[in-house]
Design brief:
By secondary structure, this protein is of the alpha/beta class. It contains 37 helices and 13 strands. Keywords: ATP-binding, Cytoplasm, Inflammasome, Inflammatory response, Nucleotide-binding, Repeat, Ubl conjugation.
């Protein structure tokens, strides 16, 4: 036993012995393709300089204040005064010299001269030499503005290098020994972000010498700090345009006097629309609880990049694996967090300061297009609500005078050609008379388009015919176009090129944007760490119940992993709460699998509406068949026509359990229906299989779903397997009647057939993945006899390979499932986990079963 654990620990050590800041595996990152040279989103000068002109909350005005700062609170807040641009020219010293092309003649220099100087530096020199010479083209004032422009990102980037940077600054007599000691103490106490923030504030409060020394330190540390290297690479690549952008001081544009009143009305309207946050319950007396948005909103972790993973898995499972990768990347300092107020007018807006050679022929400024991705239920729509609320109350985006927010699910009602003017006028009638005036100041406009994955129209950004066919061109707000052409033209800067656009989407629709001109890519990761616990304590008024529910979740690896997603937390809280609030509850019956959890969620809805239900089995079968069609075609939004196809009536969704099971959203022009979460839709689709009397082709349907490689049926199959378990079926049978016995038998036979075939075939990664998925199905089924029958005589389980490309990465959830499978075997002659990147949490899940393994690879 000890030898086996030691072997696994040693393998884990070998797999994790990579440099802390090594370059990430590019195969795991979704990288938008290079933009064409005709890109038009490169010139929003107003956007860029706003980040430069904003005063950072922790900056020091006077170099003499540094000593007093050290003893003050860590939340440094003072006023920064920038160096006078022409004061001394601040010639670069400490190895970085003033060049003839960088004379302190005002704050702006000749762009062609700069580009020519830059070309001269690009010889056969190393990256660090090139960057040093690039910095030499900045005078002291420009370097100050550059540092300020990147200050928020530098705080993250240098966390692991504060002590070394401070040492160099102390050696060069820019810092005193006392200042260095304070920074060192903060670093050693684990407050690395605080120490990096303090270091930058101190440097910004001192003269140009300190900034020169700090950037020299960055050059030396560049190879070991991934995020720092990323910033420095951006500075090199953006060249002269970046120097101009950080140097020219542009303030927030004023609203014209005749537009002040209409802007005030617009902000008041949006604030009223967004100030309340509604949280659904499944109770008859209190269907919805309403809270102030500012009181209940919890900031989610958002990163300024997209990680690539072919969507061959359901998002729930993919996210479980991605979280494990995220933790490793975070340790190596490779992920940059981004706040929502930095999506525009900040250094993250990569396309906003492209060199002039990469801009379009027009000299007019172009806005920024930003995309925020996140799986279903992660909080994209609530994030949009918070952004609109914060703008309307003056907290963010002062450069935008007007913000227009649309949901794609609402736009689906439009089947005829329309105009942008009409879209705005219908949603904001009070703006109809001032649209022409608004379009004159495009750079002050922000369009928010929420839920691209729900859009039923087709948008092909790679289709060049959109730019040549007259009927598809949409270059003016009054042009009548298809809605898809309007959206395309806004994002591609063909329509109102000066405006900015924010798009949200699930990852499944990101391929639509692969050829789009996007400046900022971001992804919502969801709850991390203690944020999960915080959610449950906010959900329950009784803190003892909250603690008991979260304790149960913590003990169940499957449920805990789900808690990265606010929607899953909501389902968990609704489903588990009753088990810990009833005086005589049966704690041993608390759900332990995902299927059991969702079974109790539906049970809770049915139990609150048992008096008012008519033919609940028949209604659930119909809604389940509609849900299955949606899963098959990747459709999550339904309309009245869809209801009629399955003999459902819209009136049925005004009361009873259907009102809780399906959300109904109505607008002036249309009504749409959605399940609260995609996973609920998948569960109801699986449930319908056990209610239908037609069982003849079930195995054929299951085989077809299992062969689908895009992941759309993966969780559906989890639930089908799980509902074959009496533990998951019994609560629902109380209201829906007995499940069809033939269906349960057919599912068990299908599982047995799949397991026997796949255990023998593990040569490829795809085959290993299918075996692991089938073991997940077996775990959900909780069928001891079936597991013993199929796994009892198994001698070899292979998930690894000496080549990491042919091995599976196993997450803690996977390890739970593998551990159970091993436990059901008589004896395992060989367990191959080589190159499976099992981390400590996964190892803990495996240990209990490893005594059955004779050989561990």
């Amino acid at each position: 036993m000890k030898r086996l654990i030691g072997t696994l620990l040693e393998k884990r050590k070998q797999n994790s012995e990579t440099p802390r800041h090594e370059k990430p595996d590019e195969s795991m990152k979704w990288s938008p393709p290079p933009q064409p040279n005709t890109s038009t989103f490169g010139g929003n000068e107003t956007a860029i300089t706003s980040a430069v002109t904003q005063t950072h909350c922790g900056t020091v005005a006077n170099p003499n204040q540094c000593s007093s700062i050290l003893s003050a609170s860590s939340d440094l807040a003072s006023i920064e005064t920038e160096p006078i641009a022409n004061a001394e020219g601040d010639a670069m010293i400490c190895g970085v010299h003033q060049t003839p092309g960088n004379t302190p003649e005002g704050n702006v220099f000749s762009l062609p001269d700069f580009e020519e100087s830059l070309k001269e530096t690009i010889t056969n020199k190393g990256t660090n030499t090139l960057f040093t010479e690039t910095l030499a083209l900045y005078n002291g004032y420009q370097l100050h503005r550059l540092t300020k422009f990147y200050q928020d990102r530098l705080e993250q980037a240098i966390e692991e290098g504060v002590e070394d940077i401070s040492s160099r600054l102390t050696q060069k007599e820019c810092f005193s020994p006392q200042e260095h000691k304070k920074l060192t103490e903060l670093t050693h106490s684990g407050r690395k972000r605080q120490s990096s923030k303090l270091l930058l504030n101190m440097v910004m409060g001192k003269g140009s010498q300190a900034r020169i020394v700090m950037w020299e330190s960055f050059v030396k540390m560049r190879p070991t700090l991934y995020k720092l290297n990323k910033i420095m690479t951006e500075i090199q690549e953006q060249g002269a345009s970046l120097v101009n952008e950080v140097t020219i001081d542009r303030g927030v544009p004023d609203v014209s006097s005749d537009m002040i009143a209409i802007q005030r009305l617009h902000k008041e309207t949006l604030q009223k629309q967004c100030e309340k946050l509604e949280v659904k319950t499944i109770l008859i007396k209190e269907k919805v609880r309403t809270f102030q948005l500012v009181d209940r909103y919890t900031e989610l972790t958002i990163i300024s990049d997209l990680r690539h993973r072919k969507l061959v898995e359901h998002e729930l499972l993919a996210r479980g694996r991605a979280h494990e990768e995220w933790r490793q990347k975070q340790l190596r300092g490779q992920l940059e967090k981004i706040r929502t107020d930095k999506l525009f007018h900040s250094s993250f807006s990569k396309g906003s300061h492209l060199p002039s050679s990469q801009r379009s022929g027009s000299d007019s400024p172009t806005g920024t297009s930003a995309v925020v991705s996140g799986v279903a239920g992660i909080g994209k729509t609530t994030m949009v609500q918070k952004i609109v609320h914060d703008w309307s109350t003056g907290k963010i985006y002062p450069h935008f005078h007007f913000v227009f927010a649309f949901k794609f699910r609402d736009l689906n009602r439009l089947h005829d050609r329309t105009t942008l003017n009409r879209l705005i006028g219908e949603q904001y009638p009070y703006l109809r008379g001032v649209l022409d005036e608004l379009w004159k100041h495009q750079e002050t406009l922000l369009f928010i388009l929420d839920g691209l994955d729900e859009f039923r129209g087709r948008i092909d950004f790679a289709d060049s015919r959109r730019d040549t066919e007259p009927q598809r061109r949409c270059t003016e707000p009054e042009f009548r176009c298809k809605l898809s052409d309007i959206v395309y033209s806004l994002i591609q800067k063909k329509l109102l090129p000066g405006c900015s656009v924010l798009v949200t989407s699930r990852p499944t629709a990101l391929q639509l944007l692969a050829k789009a001109r996007v400046s900022v890519w971001a992804e919502i990761l969801g709850f991390v760490g203690e944020e999960r616990r915080e959610y449950f304590h906010k959900f329950f008024e009784d803190q003892e119940v909250a603690a008991a529910v979260y304790s149960h979740v913590e003990e169940n690896e499957l449920l805990l992993t789900m808690c990265y997603n606010p929607s899953y937390c909501w389902i968990l809280a609704l489903s588990l709460g009753p088990f810990f609030t009833r005086k005589h509850s049966h704690k041993q019956r608390v759900p332990k699998t995902v299927t059991q959890l969702f079974s109790y969620y539906i049970y809770s809805i049915l139990s609150h509406h048992s008096v008012k239900m008519e033919s609940p089995r028949d209604v659930m079968l119909k809604i389940g068949e509609m849900a299955f069609t949606g899963v098959s075609h990747r459709n999550i939004v339904f309309n009245d026509e869809d209801l009629f196809k399955y003999n459902l009536q819209p009136s049925q969704f005004h009361s009873g359990f259907l009102m809780e099971l399906v959300e109904r959203e109505s607008s002036e022009h249309s009504v749409v229906y959605t399940f609260p979460h995609l996973t609920i839709q998948e569960f109801v689709a699986a449930l319908a299989q056990f209610l239908s009397p037609n069982t003849g082709n079930l195995q054929q349907h299951l085989n077809k779903a299992h062969r689908e490689e895009d992941g759309r049926f993966e969780i559906f199959l989890h639930f089908v397997a799980g509902l074959s378990s009496p533990r998951a079926a019994q609560p629902l049978e109380k209201f829906l009647g007995p499940f069809v016995h033939q269906t349960t038998c057919a599912v068990i036979d299908w599982l047995k057939e799949k397991l026997k075939a796949q255990i023998r075939d593990t040569d490829t990664v795809t085959a290993k993945r299918k075996l692991l998925n089938t073991l997940h199905y077996l775990f959900e089924a909780q069928n001891q006899a079936l597991a013993q029958l199929t796994l009892g005589s198994v001698h070899t389980l292979t998930f690894g390979n000496f080549s990491s490309e042919k091995a599976l990465r196993l997450t803690p959830i996977d390890c739970v499932v593998v551990s159970q499978a091993i436990g059901l075997c008589d004896t395992i002659k060989q367990l191959n986990l080589s190159s499976c990147y099992i981390q400590e949490e996964g190892l803990q899940r495996l240990v209990a079963a490893l005594h059955k393994c004779k050989e561990l690879l």
